[in-house]
Queue: 2 jobs
Job 1
Amino acid sequence: MKTATKYIHAGEEPDPSTGAIMTPIYQTSTYVQEAPGVNKGFEYARSQNPTRKALEEAYAQIENGQFGLAFGSGVAATDAVIKLLSPGDEVIAANDMYGGTYRLFSKVFEKFGIIFTYVDTTNIANIKAAVSAKTKLIWIETPTNPLMNITDIEAVSAIAKANSVLLCVDNTFASPYLQNPLDLGADIVMHSATKYLGGHSDVIQGALMMNSAELREQLYFIQKSCGAVPGPMDCFLVLRGIKTLHLRMQRHCENGRAIAHWLRKHPKVGKVYWCGFEDHPNYAIARKQMRDFGGMLSFELKDDSMDAAKKVLSSTKLFSLAESLGGVESLINHPASMTHASIPREKRIANGLSDTLIRLSIGVEDADDLIADLENALA
């Protein structure tokens, strides 16, 4: 089945009682049973909900997986993966990652005895060198937030399998439209569905996709037992968003390409981070494992001062200064004080994330209008 058709029909099954083509919002906390243990497959809404079930089936389909699980947020989905581990287990993670993930790892799970080793995952040798007998999980983002670094998923998968280690890929920046990590050997794919999957900045949700039935049962037990589940309205919103994912991603990619090249030529811009440039350090890998290069990019000004950065951040009209990404509207963001504020400054600087870096989430507006908005802000 072609991608566009799959997205439109993913998880779709007409409502058996009415024939409604859209999955109903089953706004209920519990379900009437015929007798103890005799039910229609649903007992309590923390464990199961028909709207969530449809979405979880859609999640599996759009990532070419066998199973999907929905969570109350992307961080909740990440939390569930780490709960597969035990005290003393080690995790190899990228040193360039979303600040909320780093905060969860360092401030929550380290005190329970999980050991995290942060390396530059764009160099596979670093991962090989970090693997030990206690390593149980490799966690990567590609492209990374916000520096757009690229890691070779297939190569990391080979290392993981050779050492009987799980590989989880945060695929939020790429979306399933551009990249499918399960096809490249990953064990688990994580999404902040708040972003491209929802696509309209109106829902908070996370997702996990996998092929292993055993992994699915372990993660479902954590989902059910720890309770970080989304409500049916949120599930409905993401189901709706998935139906137009391909259309939105096409425009995100078109606009991202146009703005990345325009920024690179601007006299006040020092450096643009976008994985579609042929001189990007891992362009060949991005081209191999991605279908296009997306609508996320970051840039630095030649005037590397906070005053100059703040002027740009506060001067756009179409780009809204806000956290998050992946919605139809364009956003501008200051990672050092917003999305990555939880990472200690010395670590952030060492990893290449400067105080003045500006991140853009390119929306689906007309590219000419977005460029004009940036031109005015940079003037």
Job 2
Amino acid sequence: MRVEVKILSVILFCFFCLPIAAGAQQNKDLGLKTVVIDPGHGGKDPGALGKTSSKHEKHIVLNISKLLGQKIKAAYPDVKVVYTRNTDVFLELKERVNVAKRNNADLFISLHCNSNNSSQPYGASVHILGPKSKNSKNQKDYFAASMSVAQRENSVMLLEENYQTTYQDFDPDSPESIISHSLMWNANYSNSLLFAAEVDNVMKKPPFRVSNYTGIHQDIFYLLWATNMPAALLELGFVSNPSDYAYLSSADGQEKTAQRLFEAFKAYKTQYDASVSVEETPAPAPQSVPQPTAQPAPDRKGQPSVEKFTSEKWYGIQIMGLGRKLAASDPALKGLKVEAVKADESTIYKYVACKSETREAAASRLAEVRKKFPEAFVVEVEGNIVRRAK
């Protein structure tokens, strides 16, 4: 019962608010700095078979991965783009994960193509880590099809030597196995969901075609289970469908697909960077009568004085950043009373709990708040500007 409650609480939190991590970084210069792009399959593992031997899944996703990486580098020279493979070589699933970990990736994107025994299914989909659904209404198509995709992608393990030993801790049917990894990390899961939402948005535009498969799916992929950063696996279309295969295997289709994925990356990076920044551009000084500035309290015991807030300055604990304003009763806030603060030029509301007169008073509540929001941190609020408290 305890396991089920933990799973449910995390899923509800993520789906109700799609929050961005509440400042997992320690200084304002940090944002999305490293992305690992993983072209699925390769070498002795062709993936889904195309009509010609030079246009199997492994070739298609490698081409699109390189195009996506080039677009990211052109737009963001300071972002490090790492490929798990940049040639037609076989790479074990565990090594793909290790590449992301060694490079301290801020985002892991695994690209694949889908396949079916029938030529009828078509469309793209995005997958993030999550447990099997208990919703009987969706069992027939959405989740049954989704789990078949996971089984197909995970089957690559069988091509590896000593796979029984390497993946002995991976049990897709174990809730504890899932909880012990990404689902217990609210920041990673919610950011994965945020990126997935941006991908899902572009997958509803040409060259993609909307179908019953289009959407955000929860699956138990090893690649998503083993990573320790926001991650998503993208199925770009069905190689088994003539129309999907035509655009996926063509240079023009690959270019347009990469462009759409770049648009999703750009939208996600903009929100991610805004959520982890500590300072924002100060708003113009108000024209009203100046308020009295804070004065240090008398030092009666030889200890450092405590700075108290004026009517415009206070302290609190930031729990999340989000691109929309939540109602005070929203379950995503987990019962906390918060202030939603948004700078004039920003699109992000910063949710700050435990409003206090002093930094010390706010800090005293941090351990308690982190039981609900592990990435929470103490901030100073002045007007509509939120800064990490020093």
